[in-house]
Amino acid sequence: MGPLTFLTQARVLIVTGKGGVGKTTVSGVVANLAVRNGLRAMVVQIGAPSSRHEPEAANLSRLYGQEQALGYEAVLLDANEEGGEVVARALWPDTALVEYLHRHGMRRLSRRLVSSGALDVVATAVPGMPDVLLLGKVKQMERAAAAGEPDAADLIVLDAPAAGHAIRFLQSPHGVADAAGGGPVRQQAEEVVAMLTDPSRCQVLLVTTPEETPVTETVETARLIEGTGTKLSAVIVNARLPVLDLPASLRPAELARTAAAAGTKLTTAELESLVAAGRVRAQRQEAQAAQVARLATELPLAQLELPFCFSSELGPDELELLTDALEAAVSGPAEATP
């Protein structure tokens, strides 16, 4: 489909997946691909109520060689001479509520809520309201992008909650719109629903790893998201091991002859360790291939693979490697399964 086509399918790309599959990393990689193509990307992370210093808050910054945890104000992570830029920020329900009240001429009320310590309570009192507040802020940024306002992002990458919460996150505006009798709450919820259900404005990018449980949860999540009316973009298969050409049967004697031909002599312990490692690697490769095939069968979406990074921490080098892989994947023949 090509990088620009992939990046401009919708102005908001919601990235979600089972916890631990690398959705924050994928969010950063998508934003970095946007920078390469001269686009301005805004990465938005969702914070839990009353939580300003979550342990993973600096992970996105580290991809770009920085260490700061994200706050409500946008910070610049990267820029290039072609006009590409990555900025990032975090959103919380209470701060989104304050901004909403300010925009609607209720600054005095917001000050009272802050001074009384009741802001968190009010922001989370109504079921579904925190999600509507957060998505309402995303909707505001999306409208600015559509209007071509100065400094508006071309692409908003929403690093959404893990899959279980993400379903509720997308369902809540529908519930609030149905439950609210009228007024600004209903209007806000309806406007958010309009954004979520317009594929030119918003789509969901699923992230999984090629393992049984994440693949199963990804397929189930995809079906539930489709039920909300939000379009699925593609599925990223993260942490795919490079496929090695390993022999079907690997024995110490065969490995010793191969090593000797290369001018290396291995001890018996080394040979046995290498044979054991080769067998484990072959088993993992086979298991991953089986899950990738199952995913293609059960979920008719384009699959975009990112390689496993053999590093304890991910930084700028890994970001570039993964961005290269994503660029190649979106430029290749990956197609939805009929």
Report what the structure shows.
The protein is of the alpha/beta class. The chain has a single domain, classed as P-loop containing nucleotide triphosphate hydrolases (Rossmann fold). About 50% of the residues lie in helices and about 15% in strands. The chain has helices at about 5, 25-35, 60-65, 95-105, 105-115, 120-125, 130-145, 165-180, 185-195, 210-230, 250-260, 270-300, 315-330, and strands at about 10-15, 40-45, 75-80, 85-90, 155-160, 200-210, 230-240, 305.
List keywords for this structure.
single chain, 338 residues, alpha/beta, Rossmann fold, eight-stranded mixed sheet, 52% helix, 15% strand, elongated, disordered C terminus
Helix content: 40-55%
The main pleated sheet reads as: 8 strands, mixed
Number of domains: 1
How many helix segments?
13
Q: What is the C-level CATH assignment?
A: Alpha Beta
- What structural class do helix, strand and pairing data support? alpha/beta
Write the CATH fold name. Rossmann fold
Strand content: 15-25%
Sequence of secondary-structure elements = HEHEHEEHHHHEHHEHEHHEH
> How confident is the prediction overall: mean pLDDT?
86
What is the assigned CATH homologous superfamily? Answer: P-loop containing nucleotide triphosphate hydrolases
Strand order of the largest sheet: 3-4-2-5-1-6-7-8
Shape: elongated
Annotated CATH architecture: 3-Layer(aba) Sandwich
Report low-confidence residues grouped into runs of 5 or more.
50-55, 116-126, 334-338
Radius of gyration: 23 Å
Total number of strands: 8
User: Ends: how far apart?
Assistant: 16 Å
